[in-house]
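Archive entry. Fields below.
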Amino acid sequence: MKKVIMMFLMLAASLSTSAQAGLKINDLFEGRIIPQEKMVETRVRGKTLAKYQLTYYRSVRLTVAEEEAERLLQLVEADGKGHFAAGSDRSQKTVFGKEHSLTFKTQVRKQGDKNCFLCYQAHWRGNATDREITVIYMEGSVRSLEQLEELLKN
Amino acid sequence: MNNLLRIRTLTDKFFDGDTTPEEEQELYEYYRQPWEQIPDDLRSNCELFRDLAALGSLTPSTLPPPLSTIHHSLSTHRYRWWFAAAAVALVLLVGGATLYHYQSENECVAYIYGERVTDRDVVLGEMQKTMMAMTADGSDVVEEQLKAMFGD
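PREDICTED_STRUCTURE:
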């Protein structure tokens, strides 16, 4: 009986483990870097995501100082290197000399048919030192972020 | 006299633990007689044999259950309680895990600066806006908006 109870406790514990556990950026999602009261977090899982060929979506949006934004980018880049070497893309754009954005997208895991993606974007205006940061973690059968982009457009 | 000698012999045999049930019955019968008829040296045994005779007259149904039976009954009773408690705990655990699993499989929630929002439209709107901004690199959206406002 003890073994059965232990088995169910372990099952419950495994269910409560977050999908992006093991990634360095997980600390941000769990509010260990920035308090969760200072960010917008979105978590979607299930049939709603089927049209994007995703099974799990989690994002955080927050505003931080330039140094903090750089630190978060380093965490995302480390996850991109550490887990899955394929398909990282970093780009920086400036629109009309005033709108700046830095984007980093990477695939962090591939488990069978399931692909896991991590995206980081910093956005700021002019010479402002504050950065509006968005970090997204996604899981699903979608093969690439390019394919996801196509699905979003349709 | 012969009878008294036999009683003495049987009494000694009884205290040595060598008597048969029939011999013990004989002793009970002897010690049941009036006090005065028993020799002085044997009177001290009267109380013991009368008590034993009284115990022997109890039928199995009126006898208290042996201690081992009581222990067995108690342990069985306790075991049943533990089993019932474990069964209830298991049902709660499985039910809870199933509910949790179902909810986590169909999650749709946002925390806007610490405030929990479960409105599906708001959550999905937030998600789509974020995904579009990310896939279009954000600046493209801004560029398109500016182009629409001021022309190419």
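CURATOR_NOTE: Chain A has one domain: 21-153.
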